[in-house]
Amino acid sequence: MNLTQAFKIAIKSIAAKKARSALTMLGVIIGLAAVIILVSYAEGQNQQMRAYYESLGSNVININAYSWDSKGIADDLYDYCMELDEYIVGFTPVVQMYNQTVIKYGAKTLDNHNSSWEESPQVVMGNQDFALCNNFTIAKGRDIAYLDVERYNQVCVLGSKIAELLFNYIDPVGRDITINGVPFEVIGVYEEKDPDNMTGMDRYVVLPYTANRVLNKSNQMDTFVAKAKDAQSTKMGVALLQGYLDSLLGQGTGYVGTPNQWQEQGDEQIKLQQRFLGGIAAISLAVGGIGIMNIMLVTVTERTREIGIRKAIGAERKSIIAQFLIEACMICGIGGLFGIAVGYIGTLIVGKASFNLILLPSPGITVGAFLISVALGIGFGLYPAIKASGLQPVDALRAE
């Protein structure tokens, strides 16, 4: 018996028991769809995280320096970064308001304690390099200038989302808003940076850091961001700044790092999550495989006389094994194709619902899923095939 005949026999056998074949395939369909959806979900998380770190900007160096004299630390760090102009192109303090912040323009009020996440303002303070260091681009007006910091000017630049919420279609530049009752003139608006509102950076209201003494009643600054020229300069900048902080504050007092370090850790966690989710989904595949083995054993029992006749007229064991393996692989392969289709649809739904992304399984996952389905047919169909080939012709012909 050649392979063409074996495939024809397998198709006839599957078609003769349509309901049973469909139910057998169901385990494979559910298992493969689960593998594809769960692994793709983890990949969607990875894409979202990468987008977050990209929004922070490339070649960014984060600095945390804890000292009782933060004003002195800020000046020392600024001066040192200016000396490192071979590697560093910008430096800014980053001061955030975590207490209740109420921003008003006319009848419109935004309150970070009472507004929804999408409308919650974030007041952040920095210097003239804030936009450079945090990858912002001016869309209207101008950015914070050195003189705004030096002269304690009460000015601000709005993120695109806050500008839209407060002013709608009105040009905000030149208009006054109040932050906790303190007036600030809007001098510019940043371009949209985060359309999915994942990081909230479009909800920033950026002020000169000298406004810290007015709004927070404090001059405390311990968080800074530096911008390096390129990836190589970033590594060198991290090493030099860490050494400088250690000499200034003592070993282990200050921290210097990059978002890439957190991204690498996050990538590792997501890889572990992918393996974990894939392992859970593989359990359902194993259950489907056991169902295939069970059905193939039933098929062997039902076709005992056929096997006996074939062996009596000279069929070899390998041809019997091939016939049943092909049938098992066809059941799994067809189930695998349906499982891939369900996985694609499920991935699209999960991507849109969870990440607002058009998420599709990677070609590698798709091909791997199909190969797994065929491997299931071989793995769980082998025992029934060997059992069928081992029947004695006399016993097989005698069977009812």
Description:
The protein is α+β, with helices and mostly antiparallel strands. It has helices spanning 3-16, 18-56, 70-83, 130-133, 146-150, 160-167, 212-215, 231-249, 259-302, 304-312, 317-355, 363-389, 393-398; strands spanning 60-65, 88-93, 95-96, 102-105, 108-111, 122-126, 138-141, 155-158, 176-179, 182-190, 204-208, 223-228, 254-257. It folds into two domains: 3-51 and 264-398, no CATH class; 67-252, no CATH class. 58% of the residues lie in helices and 16% in strands. The strands form two sheets. Strands 3, 4, 5, 6, 7, 8, 9, 10 and 11 form a nine-stranded mixed β-sheet that branches. The protein has a four-stranded antiparallel β-sheet with strand order 2-12-1-13. β4 (102-105) and β5 form a beta hairpin. α2 (18-56) crosses α11 (317-355). The radius of gyration is 33 Å and the shape is elongated.
Topology, element by element:
Layout: H1 3-16, H2 18-56, E1 60-65, H3 70-83, E2 88-93, E3 95-96, E4 102-105, E5 108-111, E6 122-126, H4 130-133, E7 138-141, H5 146-150, E8 155-158, H6 160-167, E9 176-179, E10 182-190, E11 204-208, H7 212-215, E12 223-228, H8 231-249, E13 254-257, H9 259-302, H10 304-312, H11 317-355, H12 363-389, H13 393-398
Parallel strand pairs: 6-11, 8-10
Antiparallel strand pairs: 1-12, 1-13, 2-12, 3-6, 4-5, 4-9, 7-10, 8-11, 9-10
Based on secondary structure, the structural category is alpha+beta
Are there runs of 5+ residues with pLDDT below 50, and where? none
Question: How far apart are the first and last residues' alpha carbons, in Å?
Answer: 25 Å
Give the SSE string: HHEHEEEEEHEHEHEEEHEHEHHHHH
Q: How many structural domains can be distinguished in the coordinates?
A: 2
Radius of gyration: 33 Å
Largest sheet: 9 strands, mixed
Tell me the fraction of residues in β-strands, as a range: 15-25%
Morphology call = elongated
How many separate helices? 13
User: Could you tell me the number of beta strands?
Assistant: 13
Helix content: 55-70%
Average pLDDT across residues?
85
